[in-house]
Amino acid sequence: MSGSPAIGRLFRLHLLHGLVLDGWVTADGQAVAIETPEWIVTAPSLEDLVRGYGGGRVEWPPPTEHHPAPPAQQGDTR
Asked: CA–CA distance from 51 to each of 6, 7, 16 (Å)?
């Protein structure tokens, strides 16, 4: 699971009965969870989403590490 600025900050919602849903929070704070490919749930906030499912635990992925570009390859100097 890695964050993507195009959709927002990713999370994994662990519901009390064991189901785990992937989702994201948009820039304006709306929460989106994917139950199935055909069923997507939205809420005004992540807190509202968790409350709507009767509780759960949110897992955030670790921050994406930005690695510098590798140094340019040097040609044969002979």
From this structure: 26, 22, 11
> Model confidence over 17-63: pLDDT tens digits?
999 999 999 999 999 999 998 999 999 999 999 999 999 999 999 87
Give the predicted TM-score (pTM) of the model.
0.71
**Residue 28 host element (H or E):** none
**DSSP letter string over 12-69?**
EEEETTS-EEEEEE-TTS-EEEEEETTEEEEESSHHHHHHHTT-EEEEPPPPPP-PPP
Token reading at 54: 């009767």
